[in-house]
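Recap from last week: sequence in, structure out.
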Amino acid sequence: MRRSTLAFALVAAAAGPVLAQQPAAAPRPAAPAAAAQRPAMTTAQRYENAYYLWDAGKFDTALVELKRVLAAPDADQFHDRVAELTGEIYTTSLVAENASAPLWSPDGRLLAYTAGVGAQRFFRVSNPAALNEPALLEGTGFGPTFGADNRTVAWVPLGAGSASAFNYAVVGGRGLERVNVDAPAITSVTAFGSNPVRVAVIAGTPGDSTARLLVYSVGEGSWTTVSTGALQPVSLLRSPDGRRLLVLLGERGAFARQVPGFQQQSRNTAFAELRGNALGAVEGGIMPTWSANGRALAWIEPGGEVARLRLRRDDGPVRDLVTITGRFQAPAVSPTGAYVAYPTMLREDWELFAVSGNGGEPMRVTREIQHDHSPRFISDSLLLGAMGEGRHQRSYLYDLRSGTRTRLHHNNSVRTVAPEYEWAVSPDGSRVAIVTERDGDTVTPHRHLWMTDLTRKVSRQALVARVDSNLAAERALRANGRRIFAPIAAQVRAATEEVSTGRIYEYQKQLFSFDSKHITQPGNWKATNWLEETYRGFGLQTRLQRFKTVAGSEIEVANVLATIPGTENPELVYVVGAHFDSRAEGPGADDNTSGTAMILEAARVLAKRPQPATVMFVAFTGEEAGLRGAREFGRVMKDSMTVVGALNNDMMGWSNDHRIDNTIRYSNPGLRDVQHAAAIQFSELITYDAFYYKSTDAQALYDAWGDIIAGIGSYPILGNPHYHQVHDVLETINHRQLTETSKTTVATIMYMASSPSRLTGLVAQGSTVSWTPARERGVTRYLIRYGPPANPMQYSATATSPRAVLNSLREGWHVAVKAVNARGMEGWDWARTVVK
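Predicted structure tokens:
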């Protein structure tokens, strides 16, 4: 299940939804006595009703019910449930924009993080209880670490000579000191200990398989070289309390690099604790992990058939906790060592288990078909775990005593996803620093650092405001969608009703039968030829776009292009794409036979319904080999045809539960809203959204034609555990979900190709606004919106020519313009500018 189990007993007979009263045209007969005596909904029943409305994607109706729940006399009993259903329970505050790598001081009173990118990186040390106050320490560089005194900070500098130097400073005390190391390069700069604080580094030559462990004493200014015996230092791991330091060891040191067929990269196979100026006993094992108090250490000792999870408390004996068969990831130790959690793969997805520090039978913590991983303890009985693939991770809290799960972080919106990437739990477990794309922007390189306070739940006032805001946004999205589709709603509905689940299955079955469709495999050309024949059979103008590429040797591959010429604006083209190739090791039923089959059915339905603009369906090859087909398409077509909009579709056939849902992955917010409207009105698909196109064929389309891209992918994004695996097979696909996604795509195409594209050449100077005339024939007027930055769409105007004089315009105001055609179809996106 994706969502938490309902935390209340289900009523024996749930009442139906409450309908808004409407004024009657004439008196109605009195209701029967039985109906008049029907009891009112209890708050529990009303919350249950809201929960299942939300589950069905009827967010607007659900939010109305939740408002009533929060207004009830016993609303306190449902506060947390409403908060989690609509977002997060605990208060979350922004720490810093464009920030990563959060690290707490050992006492939890300070928080360090790195901001900026590349040569512009810098770090800050702040008081997490006073985030609005200036930083306590700031410096150019990255990777700050604290000594056990909580005040000494060491970090990696930038600039000339920085490869073999580190800086340190004392918060509220000694200023910056630079320490040069007699070595070509250093890595793993780590402060630890107190009285004196020391800084350990690994020194060596890039590419060399040997390395040295050096320790610098702050205050004394002296160096010690620590022998690592026959093994080489690979990396360092300081305990969270700052007192202890592990040296991870391997046969090749930290600077070793891989040489194919000859040498391997550095990899640790053992570790030892630094005790004074020498290493303690070497312990064989990998993935060592400290407890928060630094008194317990867990690690995994791999073997031939099985691995052992081991624990040592203080300097006591090593205890074997559990034997792991199959794959495993790094464990986590609770603050006192009472429990150890670890991820393991039972079948095709990662699950979290926990075992007592005294040994015994492990308990299974998670049962979600998506990957569960990256455990961190909040307390001895509360575990933080991440769910999902690396590009859409979400955090949850697991109570090991009750077995309940609580969502930790969300952006509190209905439809926009909020991927998470890093989590740092404060030493006392009261706060969690989270690096997240809370705004759903996965494209721009920056991510933001937020703080979730587990001691402060959202207030009733804030929760009511959240529900009200989301209800207004959802109502506006739906109302706008009905309005813009109104001129062609009947035609769209007739088309979407022809989408066939059976046909979609047959397309998938045929493509699946070609096995791997990677460009190096025979199935690639089998699929290419079959797609060409199938599109031609629909009556589309079809051809292969052949090109040569290198995959071991030079080979010929091809994209499949199938076109429905426009009836009014044939020179304007909308591209609808999906890659048909797969990974070499698997048939790629979801990635991306699902997208290929979905647009095939859209093409079949639209083949007998030509649109005003040209629609070109493209089956891209070589996506899994580096977007080769899409990049070739963009390179060749960029200057030979006018592409005014595009949809790229990738992985939308897998679902992890009963819900039919997918994510709109867009660069253009206008197309995003069109796709939401298409799904709401003409399908049963529940849609979410993310500003997302990187590492997909959409990136190649964006590079060629700019910000005119949308399309559909999975929800959660890449949540399918079969993704890029040999078991991405046909029986894991939800064919009804593909049907509803195809309906959404058909409706989106019809809207795009029937409405004006985004205008170009918009200029606003003084009181005059002008733009290039719409490229489409039949445009009758232009809509203009303008206003100050705080309300940029405040005022409106209409023009019949591509120029307008707006006497109330002011410098710095925003202006947006779109075209409207004779059918009443509005352009799908605004052209925007700022008044100069």
